[in-house]
Amino acid sequence: MGWIILGGGGHASVIADILLSDGQPVDGFTDVVPSPPLLGRIPYLGNDGVVLERDRRDIFLVNGIGSTGVPGLRKSLFEEFFDKDYAFPPVVSNRAYLSPHTSIGPGTVVFPGATVQTGVLLGKNVIINTGAIIDHGCQIGNHVHIASGATLSGNVAIEDRCHIGTGASIIQDVKIGKDVIVAAGAVVVTPVADGWTVLGVPARRKQL
Length: 208
Description:
Layout: E1 2-6, H1 10-21, E2 26-30, E3 44-46, E4 59-63, H2 73-82, E5 91-92, E6 97-98, E7 103-104, E8 109-110, E9 115-116, E10 121-122, E11 127-128, E12 133-134, E13 139-140, E14 145-146, E15 151-152, E16 157-158, E17 163-164, E18 169-170, E19 175-176, E20 181-182, E21 187-188, E22 197-199, E23 204-205
Parallel strand pairs: 1-2, 1-4, 2-3, 5-8, 6-9, 7-10, 8-11, 9-12, 10-13, 11-14, 12-15, 13-16, 14-17, 15-18, 16-19, 17-20, 18-21, 20-22
Antiparallel strand pairs: 22-23
C-alpha cells in the first residue's frame, strides 16, 4: 500500500517528510497545477482526478492541504474521497507523543513535536501542528486545525471546523463552538460561541 498526498504546498511537504521518516512508501502527490517533486523525490501525479483512476484498495490518502487560504477546501477535498470509501489512515510523526489512550479519527495528522495526552478524542481530518500541546481529556471535532505551538489545557472541547492560531492558549474546561477562529497568541479563558473570531489577552470577540 502506497500513500498519495493530496496537495503539493508546504503543508504537503511536511507530511511527506513525516511519512518518509517513518519508512512509509509514498507513490506521489496531486495538485491543481504541475509541480516539481516534493522534497526532490516524490513525483507529481496529476490533479486530484488521478486518484479516481487508482483502486482504492491499493492506496492510502492523506490530506496535504492546510487550513489557510480558500475556506473549506481542506474539508471538501477530504469528504470527496472519504465518501467514496478511500482510506485516510491517521498519520502521526514518530517525533510526536500520542498517548495510547487516545482516539484519533481518519485523516488526522499529528506533526513533529506535538503532544497529545491521555483521554483525548481527535475527530476526522484534524491537524495537530508542530509543537502543539493537547492535554488530558480534550475533545476535538472534525476539520479542526490546532496550529503550531498552541496549548489546550485539560478537558477543553472544540467543535467542528475551528482554527486555533499559532501560540494560542485555552485554559481548562473551556468550550469552543463551531466555526470559531482563535487568533494567534490569544488566551481564551471563557467559552466561545459558534462563528466567533476571538483575539487578545484575555481573548475577546472581534468586533465586525
